[in-house]
Design goal:
The chain has eight helices and two strands. It is mainly α. It has a single domain, classed as Four Helix Bundle (Hemerythrin (Met), subunit A). The protein has a two-stranded antiparallel ribbon with strand order 1-2.
Length: 234
């Protein structure tokens, strides 16, 4: 059996998760959509890992990976936010679909950018998708005021910028170089996840637990921006 089939099959599972997430979003099953995006992220991690372990990289696999990522981490979160905001904002919510286009641009740049072997320039599409999945997992009752829906729509444009901004973001691939930063990030994530789970238990709303994904991405972006502002050692 051709070893290349295995990572390609895993990538295809990623694409299928993204496709089902889009469908679930149109059915207003936001928790299911978010869960499928998370499942796609797991497959996205293991397809690259399996290709390295099996020593079976392929040009087709690289292209298939980008196509799958654009569905799961580009179209799916865009459609999720669109469907989430449409009952509140009407067709103005279609602005959220811009994220799909900017995610595609982000992935295309990643494929040709030699600087992004062990880190990222711009926010990675899986991180952006996890953020919006966590936000849209919250019930409408959590939007205390109508204007908060417009804030979310505005934040989608911020996402479009961050996806393609010339801002360095650390990756777990750069653990040797960014060991302390990554450990700090993981510690912060544990605190945020614990808080969100505790809040979910006390409020009897499981949706608060899912918001942990969005909270961790906010922390990830904030930490990277903080590191960018710190003076570099000579």
């Amino acid at each position: 059996m051709n070893k290349r089939i295995i990572p390609d099959a895993i990538t295809s599972c990623n694409l299928l998760c993204g496709s089902m997430a889009v469908y679930m979003a149109t059915q207003y099953e936001f928790l299911w959509a978010f869960g499928l995006i998370l499942a796609g992220a797991v497959f996205d991690f293991f397809d690259g890992l399996s290709a390295r372990l099996l020593k079976a990289p392929s040009p087709i696999g690289i292209q298939l990976d980008s196509l799958a990522d654009d569905i799961t981490f580009g179209l799916a979160p865009s459609m999720l936010l669109f469907c989430y905001l449409k009952p509140l904002l009407g067709w103005w919510a279609a602005i959220a679909l811009l994220m799909a286009a900017f995610s595609a641009l982000r992935l295309a740049k990643f494929n040709v950018d030699e600087r992004q072997h062990d880190s990222f320039i711009g926010l990675a599409t899986p991180a952006n998708a996890i953020f919006w999945g966590g936000v849209c997992a919250m019930p409408y009752a959590m939007l205390a005021h109508d204007w908060m829906a417009w804030v979310l729509l505005g934040l989608s444009l911020v996402s479009c910028y961050l996806l393609n901004a010339e801002i360095p973001f650390f990756s777990f691939k750069s653990f040797r170089k960014d060991r302390l930063t990554i450990i700090l990030f993981l510690c912060g994530c544990l605190i945020l996840i614990g808080f969100c789970v505790l809040k979910a238990c006390l409020a009897h709303h499981i949706e608060f637990a899912f918001f942990a994904g969005a909270a961790c991405i906010i922390w990830y972006v904030a930490l990277n921006l903080l590191m960018l502002c710190m003076p570099k050692k000579n």
